[in-house]
């Protein structure tokens, strides 16, 4: 499935503004599975998205948890708990 991923605040500083990618999960396609998949892509992704990092998520601009189901065309955002504007 095609997913748009957006990064904000310190996650954006580490990884850039975002990317459009093809994502196929080994199990259920969830935000948590996407985070794990992204974290395994490179050391930079791993450092920014590891579970030791406090990172919030949103799917289609609605806050969500790791168990949120993904679908083709979803937009997922990753950001720290507090961001400035």
Outline of this structure?
With 85 residues, the chain is of the alpha+beta class. The chain has helices at 10-15, 31-39, 43-49; strands spanning 2-7, 18-22, 56-59, 62-64, 75-79. The longest helix is centred in the middle third of the chain and has 9 residues, at 31-39.
Task: Describe the secondary-structure layout.
Blueprint: E1 2-7, H1 10-15, E2 18-22, H2 31-39, H3 43-49, E3 56-59, E4 62-64, E5 75-79
Parallel strand pairs: 1-5
Antiparallel strand pairs: 1-2, 3-4, 3-5
Helix pairs in contact: 2-3
Description:
With 85 residues, this protein is an alpha+beta fold. The protein has a single domain (2-79), classed as Beta-grasp domain (Ubiquitin-like (UB roll), Roll). The chain is built from three helices and five strands; from the N terminus they run βαβααβββ. It has helices at 10-15, 31-39, 43-49, and strands at residues 2-7, 18-22, 56-59, 62-64, 75-79. The protein has a five-stranded mixed beta sheet. β3 and β4 (62-64) form a beta hairpin. α2 (31-39) crosses α3 (43-49). The mean pLDDT is 93. It holds the Pfam family ThiS. This is MoaD/ThiS family protein. It comes from Aquabacterium soli. InterPro entries: Beta-grasp_dom_sf, Mopterin_synth/thiamin_S_b, ThiS/MoaD-like.
């Amino acid at each position: 499935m095609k997913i748009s991923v957006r990064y904000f605040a310190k996650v954006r500083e580490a990884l850039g503004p975002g990317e459009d990618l093809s994502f196929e999960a080994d199990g259920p396609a969830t935000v948590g599975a996407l985070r794990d998949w992204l974290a395994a892509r490179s050391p930079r992704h791993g450092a920014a998205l590891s579970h030791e990092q406090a990172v919030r998520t949103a799917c289609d601009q609605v806050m969500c948890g790791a168990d949120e189901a993904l679908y083709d065309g979803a937009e997922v955002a990753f950001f720290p708990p507090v961001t400035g504007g």
